[in-house]
Amino acid sequence: MTDVLHTTRAAYDAVADLYASMFNDILETLPLERALLTAFADLVRAGGSRPVADVGCGPGHLSPEMIALARKAHPDLRFDEGSMTAMDLADGELGGILSHFSTIHTPPGDLPDVLTEFHRVLAPGGHLLLGFFPGDDPEPQAFDHRVTVAYRWSPDSLAEL
Questions:
Q1: Who's near 71: CB < 8 A, 6+ residues apart?
Q2: Which of 2, 10, 26, 61 lies in the 20 to 30 Å Cα band around 83?
């Protein structure tokens, strides 16, 4: 996974400014996405006051340059660079994880390790909102994402994991 991680980070670093400018205000044009995120936040709040991690998202998408842009845009929030398979968090620390299209570049064989780590850091009853590209094939399918290779998953296959 290390080679894929470096390739993905480098690809996002190369387009960080363009990517951030294209998607910075995207939720203003997507009312259903906003409603979904609001519902997720409400679920997490109802479960207590535990923190939420926005993993690989917005724009702090996956790369050091994206994180630098996110820190500049939101200086009051904490941003860390890390690994989805080894988060610097205690067991059960989080009330929620938002992983909005941040696992799409993870090779299928490595995704179980990511989900295991998400499970480790989520508190019992915590919530995961996982955005991904759906596919019809039961096996994950690689496709040419504009930045770097990504994978489509059938919802049933992903739910099994």
A1: 60, 77, 79
A2: 26
Nearest 5 degrees, angle CA 147-CA 70-CA 143? Answer: 15
Phi, psi dihedral angles at 64 (to 5 degrees): -55, -40
Alpha-carbon span 109 to 88, nearest angstrom: 22
Q: Which of 130, 79, 121 is nearest to 101 (CA)?
A: 130
Task: Report pLDDT digits (tens) over 95-148.
Answer: 999 998 889 989 999 999 999 999 999 999 999 999 999 999 999 999 988 778
Q: Per the structure block, which two tokens stand in for 42?
A: 């409400």
CB 63 within 8 A of CB 16: yes
* 55-58-61-64 Cα dihedral, nearest 10 degrees: -100
